[in-house]
Amino acid sequence: MAELVFPSLPGLGWSVMKAPRFASRIQKAVSGRELRIVDQPLPIWLFTLTFPILRDKHDTRGPAGWGGLYDELRTLAGFFLQMQGQFATFLFDDPTDDSVLGQSIGTGDAGTTVFQLVRTFGGFVEPVTAPNAVTAIYFNGIIQSAASWSVDPATGIVTFTAPPPAGRAITADLSYYFRCRFAEDSNEFDNFNYQKWSLKQLKFQSVIGLK
């Protein structure tokens, strides 16, 4: 079954929080010298969204309300229920961080046929394990036939039918998702007026590895 994509809703408000989190161990001696060990070299991305307005057309306690045909409440709550809280993973399209052009993914050596999609965020290179679409792949800036490569949507691994020639810079144009799960098993939806609900905080986090 294909992973579901987090719904885009007009009720999303500001601000949107996004925070990378690593895991490190630090042992500090009496002298002040430190021994640092990285347990988690890739970040977990933490997202916090707020929804000041979620309309519910199914609320019929009064006359036809301003909600009209809008149904953001049940769209969002239903999505959370489908994920069974923290259990299942989903795909999140971060509109500020969802595509890259001419991204370097490796250099050919005339033997390797498998390369991992990545994206560069500032100076940090991170694997893309949930690609949305790979629109083009290039060797030294020359576009390659789409029949000569394939992409695994569950891992972001590109496989070529023949090894890229030695020394050829391999680049890609791609869009991508963050594979995430909800951070909690419960959420509180506030019915503050007729056909009007809100959700003060919706937290979820990226997951490393397969879904």
Give a quick summary of the entry.
With 211 residues, the chain is mostly beta strands.
Question: Would you write up a description of this structure?
Answer:
The chain has about 210 residues and is mainly beta. It folds into 2 domains: about 15-95 and about 180-205, no CATH class; about 100-175, no CATH class. It has one helix at about 70-85; strands at about 15-30, 35-55, 90, 100-105, 115, 120, 125, 130-140, 140-145, 150, 155-160, 170-175, 180, 190-195, 195-205. Strands 1, 2, 3, 13, 14 and 15 form a 6-stranded antiparallel beta sheet that branches. Strands 4-12-8-9 form a 4-stranded antiparallel beta sheet, with no helix packed on it. Strands 5-11-10 form a 3-stranded antiparallel beta sheet, with no helix packed on it. It is globular.
